[in-house]
Write a structure and sequence with these properties.
Layout (H helix, E strand, L loop, with lengths): L33 E4 L2 E4 L11 H19 L4 H12 L3 E2 L3 E3 L2 E7 L7 E5 L7 E4 L10 E8 L5 E8 L4 E8 L5 E10 L4 E3 L2 E6 L16 E6 L8 E4 L8 E6 L5 E7 L4 E7 L7 E5 L6 E6 L3 E6 L7 E6 L9 E4 L5 E8 L2 E8 L2 E8 L4 E4 L7 E7 L2 E9 L6 E5 L6 E5 L10 E9 L5 E9 L10 E4 L17 H5 L3 E5 L9 H5 L7 H16 L8 E6 L1 H12 L6 E5 L18 H4 L6 H10 L14 E7 L8 H12 L7 E6 L10 H18 L9
Helix pairs in contact: 2-10, 5-6
Length: 704
C-alpha cells in the first residue's frame, strides 16, 4: 500500500479501556454505493476500502494501527506477556525426517528463528548439516519456504517460496551438490507443488495479474511443464480449461514416473485423470469422475492405483483400480468405510498407514496392501499425529502432539508395531500441571457436539474461570488436539481453553461437513453459541469471563456469533475473517468457497440467507452492548483480502454498540498466516492474548 497522509482524525471517547480515551479514525462513507441482489438493495458505504493500492486506504490503515497500537501497549501486562511468550517459543522443535535419494532430511527451528531450517543427514545417526536456510532469503524473515522437491536422479532440487505471507509463489532450482542456483526462476505460481518428470517438472500457475496482485480475481489456473535450462516463457501448458476459469488444476507424478495424475477441483470435491506413459498412445483417462467428493491418489505400483475417496463412503475409504483396467467402474474396495472417519492414508513399503479420527482425535492403524488390519499404533495420549513415510521404503516416522504436548517424534517398527522415541522438545513449563477433558453438549436442534477443555488441574466450577472459546466449523477441516505455545500463558494464568468441534468440519465425515454448509450454515453458529451457553450453565465461566476467537472461516464464525449473541462474551477476536458474505467471491480465489457458502448471485434465496448472517451487514446499531472486539488482518493477505476486516471494523466503529473498544490490528508484510515469522507471531499473540486477558479481568504476574 502507498503511504500518504490525507485522512483527518475524528475523536470518539471510549471509557473503561486501557487508555484514558480511545479515539477512532474517521472513515469516509459513500452513500451512493448500493448493490442490487434480486431486488434487494444493499448499501456498501465503505467500498473504497477495497482498493488496497489507494493512498486513502493506506492512511486509514496507518491511523487505525496508531490507535490500536497505543491501546494495546497500555495493557499493564502486555510486555510481560510478550516476554513469557518469547521464553515459551525458545525451544528446539523439529519435524519428522523424510528420505530422498538415499539421504534424510528434516526441518528444525532452534527456538526463535523466524523460519525453520532444512537439514540433511547421511544417516539417522550422523551429524545434521544445513541444507537450505530460508532465514537467509530475507532480512526480516518474511520469505517463507513452502516446498522443496528433489529430482529423481538427485542432481537438482527445486524450492518454492512465498513473500510476506502471500499465496503467490516463486520457484527456484539449484544444483544438489553445489547449491548453485540455476537460471530457472518461475513467477506467478500459486497453490502449487513441484512434480519432477524427466529433465523438468510440472507446476501450477496463473497468468500475471492485470490489476492488484493481492486482490484481483484469479482465473484460469494452469498446469505447466518447465524444462531445466529454459526460460519460463517457453514452458509448455500441460492442461488448462478455458470453459471453466474458476477451477483449480494440479499434476502429480508417480514414484516410478509411469503415471501423471491430473487433478481438477472447483472448491469442495475434485476429479482425477491419469496418463499412462507406458501406453502406446499416452492420453488422459478418467480415473475419478465428477466433483462430488474429495479424493486423491495414495500410491501406485505395477498392479493397481490406490485412491482415497469419499465416493459412496461419507467417512471415506481406500479403493484400488487395476493398472490393466483403468476405468472408474473397475474400482474395488481395499479398506472399507468404518465407524470412525478415515482421515488419511499413506503407503510405507508394503504397508498402508491409515489415520482414523474418532471424536476429533487421531488413531493410526497399519494394514497390508490387501486391506487386512495388522495393528494400531499406540499413542501416548489423546492428540494428533503426522505421518512421514514413502512407498519406496519401509521406514516410518511420526509426530504426536496435544494441547499441552509439543510435537514429539517417534520412529515406527513396521514389523512389530513398536515405537521408539527420537526427539522430545523441552519447554519452560510443566505439562503435568494441566489436563484436557472432552465433553459433550447439545446444540440448538438437539445435535450432540464434542468440545475439548484444557486447563489447570483442580479448577473450581464457580462461574468465574476466564475462558477462551475457539472454533472453525467449515471446509471439511477437523480441529484435533495440537500444541501451540501461544495458549500456555493463558492457561498458566488460570484460563480455560475450549475448542468446539462444530458442524461444517470433518470430525464425523461428510455428513457432518454438509450439515454446516450453504443453507445450513446457521448450524455452525448455533453450535458455537450452544458451546458458550453450556460453559456458562455448567459454571465453568460466565459472560463477563468468556471470550471467543477464530480465524479465516473461524473469523466469520466469531463475527456472526457476536452479532447474534453479543451478551455471551466479554471479548472477541476475529482473525483474517470472511466478513462480507455478499462480495467474498469477487476477490482472488474467494469463489472457491462457494461450495461451503453459496454465492449472493446464485438465487434470491441464497442471497437472503447470506445477508441474514453476514458479519458486516448485521452489526447492531441500537445501543446493544457488544463485547470488546479486536479485529486482525494482514496487508498481504490475498486469501481473505483485508478489505473484509477493513469494512467490518469501520462499520463496528461507526455503530452504537456500547463503550467496549472496537479496534483493528493490521500487520505489515503479513498474509493469511502461513509462513509468518516467529518474531511477528510473538508480537501478534502478545497483542491478541493481552487483549483477551485484559478484558476478562485477568491479572497475570510474570517477571519482565
Amino acid at each position: 500500500m502507498k503511504i500518504k497522509s490525507i485522512i483527518a482524525i475524528m475523536c470518539i471517547t471510549i471509557a473503561g479501556s486501557a487508555s484514558a480515551q480511545l479515539k477512532y479514525p474517521a472513515t469516509r462513507t459513500d452513500a451512493s454505493v448500493v448493490d442490487d441482489y434480486f431486488g434487494m438493495k444493499v448499501a456498501d458505504p465503505y467500498r473504497w476500502l477495497e482498493d488496497d493500492n489507494s493512498a486513502e486506504t493506506a492512511e486509514w490503515v496507518n491511523a487505525q494501527n496508531a490507535v490500536t497500537g497505543a491501546y494495546l501497549q497500555k495493557i499493564p501486562f502486555r510486555n510481560a506477556l510478550k516476554n513469557r511468550l518469547t521464553r515459551l517459543f525458545t525451544y528446539e522443535r523439529s519435524g519428522a525426517p523424510f528420505k530422498r535419494n538415499g539421504k534424510y532430511y528434516f526441518y528444525r527451528n532452534d527456538g526463535l528463528q523466524n523460519q525453520a531450517v532444512l537439514y540433511e543427514q547421511e544417516s539417522l545417526t550422523s551429524e545434521p548439516v544445513v541444507f537450505l536456510d530460508p532465514n537467509k532469503l530475507s532480512d526480516d524473515g518474511t520469505v517463507a519456504l513452502t516446498n522443496v522437491s528433489f529430482s529423481p536422479d538427485g542432481r537438482y532440487y527445486a524450492y518454492v517460496i512465498a513473500r510476506s505471507g502471500s499465496d503467490w509463489n516463486e520457484i527456484y532450482v539449484a544444483d544438489r551438490a553445489t547449491h548453485q542456483l540455476l537460471s530457472d526462476h518461475i513467477m506467478w505460481a500459486k497453490f502449487t507443488g513441484v512434480e519432477w518428470l524427466g529433465d523438468g517438472f510440472f507446476y501450477s500457475a496463473y497468468d500475471a495479474p492485470d490489476g492488484s496482485e493481492l486482490s484481483s480475481k484469479n482465473e484460469y489456473h494452469k498446469v505447466k511443464y518447465h524444462r531445466i535450462g529454459t526460460p519460463q516463457s517457453d514452458d509448455r501448458i500441460e492442461f488448462q480449461d478455458l470453459d471453466n476459469p474458476l477451477h483449480f488444476h494440479s499434476a502429480a507424478v508417480s514414484d516410478d514416473e509411469r503415471f501423471i495424475f491430473l487433478y481438477k477441483s472447483r472448491g469442495h470435491g475434485n476429479s482425477i485423470y491419469v496418463k499412462d506413459l507406458k501406453a502406446e498412445n499416452p492420453e488422459y483417462k478418467v480415473l475419478v469422475p465428477g466433483f462430488d467428493d474429495e479424493c486423491g491418489v495414495v500410491a501406485s505400483d505395477d498392479k493397481a492405483i490406490y485412491i482415497f475417496t469419499a465416493n459412496g463412503a461419507p467417512r471415506n475409504r481406500l479403493v484400488a483400480i487395476p493398472v490393466g483396467d483403468i476405468r472408474p467402474e473397475a474400482a474395488y474396495t481395499v479398506i472399507p468405510e468404518g465407524k470412525s472417519v478415515l482421515a488419511g492414508v499413506q503407503r510405507a513399503g508394503d504397508r498402508f498407514i491409515v489415520t482414523y479420527e474418532t471424536d476429533a482425535s487421531d488413531h493410526p492403524q497399519v494394514f497390508d496392501l490387501n486391506g487386512k488390519f495388522l495393528y494400531e499404533i499406540k499413542l501416548p495420549g489423546i492428540g494428533s499425529v503426522g505421518i512421514s513415510s514413502s512407498p519406496k521404503h519401509s521406514e516410518v516416522f511420526y509426530t504426536f502432539s496435544s494441547y499441552t504436548t509439543p510435537g514429539t517424534i517417534y520412529s515406527l517398527n513396521l514389523a512389530d508395531g513398536s515405537s521408539s522415541l527420537m526427539k522430545q522438545p523441552r519447554l519452560q513449563f510443566n505439562p503435568e500441571d494441566f489436563t484436557t477433558e472432552q465433553v459433550t453438549y447439545t446444540g440448538k436442534d438437539g445435535t450432540e457436539v464434542r468440545m475439548f477443555l484444557t486447563h489447570k488441574k483442580g479448577i473450581a466450577k464457580n462461574g468465574k474461570n476466564p475462558t477462551l472459546l475457539y472454533g472453525y466449523g467449515g471446509f471439511n477441516i477437523s480441529l484435533t488436539p495440537a500444541f501451540n505455545a501461544r495458549i500456555i500463558p493463558f492457561l498458566e494464568a488460570g484460563g480455560i481453553y475450549a475448542v468446539a468441534n462444530l458442524r461444517g468440519g470433518s470430525e464425523y465425515g461428510e455428513e457432518w461437513h454438509e450439515a454446516g454448509t450453504k443453507l445450513k450454515k446457521q448450524n455452525v453458529f448455533d453450535d458455537f453459541i450452544a458451546a458458550a451457553e453450556w460453559l456458562i450453565k455448567e459454571k465453568y465461566t460466565s459472560p463477563k469471563h468468556l471470550a471467543c476467537n477464530g480465524g479465516s472461516n473461524g473469523g466469520l464464525l466469531v463475527g456472526a456469533t457476536i452479532n447474534q449473541r453479543p451478551d455471551l462474551f466479554a471479548a472477541a477476536v476475529p482473525q483474517v475473517g470472511v466478513m462480507d458474505m455478499m462480495r467474498y467471491h469477487l476477490f482472488t480465489i474467494g469463489w472457491n468457497w462457494a461450495g461451503d457458502y453459496g454465492r449472493s448471485d446464485d438465487s434470491r434465496e441464497m442471497a437472503e440467507y447470506l445477508l441474514a448472517y453476514s458479519p458486516l451487514h448485521n452489526i447492531k446499531n441500537d445501543g446493544t452492548r457488544y463485547p470488546a472486539v479486536l479485529v486482525t488482518t494482514g496487508d498481504h493477505d490475498d486469501r481473505v483480502v483485508p478489505a473484509h476486516s477493513f469494512k467490518y471494523a469501520a462499520t463496528l466503529q461507526a455503530a452504537n454498540t456500547g463503550k467496549a473498544p472496537k479496534i483493528i490490528r493490521i500487520d505489515s508484510k503479513a498474509g493469511h498466516g502461513s509462513g509468518k515469522p516467529i518474531s511477528k507471531q510473538i508480537e501478534e499473540y502478545a497483542d491478541i492474548y493481552g487483549f483477551i486477558m485484559y478484558h476478562l479481568g485477568m491479572k497475570p504476574k510474570w517477571k519482565e
